[in-house]
Fold Class V chitinase CHIT5b-like.
Amino acid sequence: MANFSFLNLLFVVLFSIAPAEGAVAAAALAPEAAIKGAYYPSWFSSGFPPSSIETSLFTHILYAFLSPSNTTYKFEVSDSTAPLLSNFIAALRQKSPPVKTLISIGGGGAGPALYATIASSASTRKLFIDSSIEVARKYGFDGLDLDWEMPENPKQMADLGLLFQEWRNAITRESKATARPPLLLTAAVYFAVDFFLSGTYRKYPVASMNQNLDWINAMCYDYHGSWDTSATGAHAAFFDPNSNISSSYGLRSWIQAGLPRKKVVMGLPLYGRTWELKDPSVHGIGAPAVGLGPGKDGVLTYSQVETFNKKNNATVQYDATTVSTYSFKGTSWVGYDDVVSTATKVGLAQALGLRGYFFWALSYDKDWRISTQASRAWIYGK
Ligand SMILES: *[C@@H]1O[C@H](CO)[C@@H](O)[C@H](O)[C@H]1NC(C)=O
Ligand SMILES: *[C@@H]1O[C@H](CO)[C@@H](O)[C@H](O)[C@H]1NC(C)=O
Ligand SMILES: *[C@@H]1O[C@H](CO)[C@@H](O)[C@H](O)[C@H]1NC(C)=O
């Protein structure tokens, strides 16, 4: 039943949206172009070692996270972190098929102030850039990803543009000097090109990003969450008929701002967000809520959602309007992406002509279920 309606929807997607997008959609089918990325949270490395990663499902794995020193702005890898980096690379090098590896710098827990300081002057940018290249080469990574969450004003956005430009120049110089392929350079960014919801309007430096980054990882999730307990929400809605807080709007805003579609990679959440319903009989998306549901801060990994659903015999509902899934039992409500909504979103991303998708986070899947369906849904990909 679910498969049948999914296939129907995919047909609608490919044969109604794709022609409207013209030649770019056809170009999107080029097999070598696809990026199937996933962030690997290093703090789970004992329970989820890099050797357990199923590399046939991914093209790029991002080690999350590494942060520079807040006094020297260089990467001073501690004795406890060094083996994590070496083991990550050693384990993945033994894998077939191979994957590319990147160090992701920063992350949601890192706080934005350090990166604002680093980006603010040429001397701190240089310390940071040179050290990042050194650490990537030392451990054998293929690239670097900056996850500065988030630049807070127009000045910081301008500084970010300079940082990317000087970073790319340094990467090119290093590549020439050592006769090695240049390191990849990517960034995890807000779902939209500008912070149109914020009191302090600011927009990403698109021209610099186009010129200097290999691609962006657009964080197309956390549209709703613990900060608003008044109503349930599809936290990674592809469409939202009532607002611009949707992946469709965000991804198109990047394209409209001039970033080539081939530099846009869509984020997919391998986790759900939960609420406590006000009235168990009113349980749709946007239903009144009175608090958070199960999970720490109202968050459950996809694997935990599956356990919750099974244990509670929860009702699971696919919502075609938002392209999301939710489940509920009693007053507990979970909004997430399952195999159907994920595969549908992957089809929509491909129809938009995007480069690929990535997951936050790799270890939250259940038996590679979502990663497998996403990989299959990207037609003619790896
Ligand atoms: C730098 O980091 C250390 C350890 O994480 C912290 O204790 C300190 O307050 C930070 N200093 C600044 C200036 O942010
Ligand atoms: C969405 O954004 C567009 C401009 O990009 C604006 O015209 C429209 O009013 C916005 N819609 C909502 C519901 O905010
Ligand atoms: C699970 O819920 C369905 C209805 O949603 C019901 O038909 C079924 O009997 C329930 N199973 C168990 C084991 O409670």
Residues 1-32 have pLDDT under 50 and may be disordered.
